[in-house]
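tool=predict chain=A
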Amino acid sequence: MKRFKTISGEELINKELAEIPFVVKNLIPIGLTLLSGSAKVGKSWLALWLAVQIAKGEVIWRYESIKCTTLYLAYEDNEIRIQNRLFDICDDAPKNVHFCTEVSKLGGDLESIIDSFILEHKDTKLIIIDTLR
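tool=predict ok
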């Protein structure tokens, strides 16, 4: 018979746990975060801006960010559209923000390509998939 693996309140309160690491302090933890909303409300613009700001180590709405390599997988865009948006949101894009418009599918080769990118860019802390298919 399968059972839940539980921990008692007493055990949990006395357990030493590591702090949750954040890319943007108290806002975006390292791990999975989903950004969702209605179509055409600016999710891609926000994600692009976050990728650039975090790559620069800039403050995000008064929250500190960790300067790190970021990867933006822009599956519904092309390079000219991304470039035009970059011109709209910043004066310069750092070399540690990377973009890819080449579509890879979850369950296909996406995971291995991400692993390869991380091996080449060890300080990668933010990967944005716009949009997940």
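The beta strands are 22-24, 28-29, 69-74, 97-100, 124-130. The CA atoms of residues 91 and 120 lie 27 Å apart.
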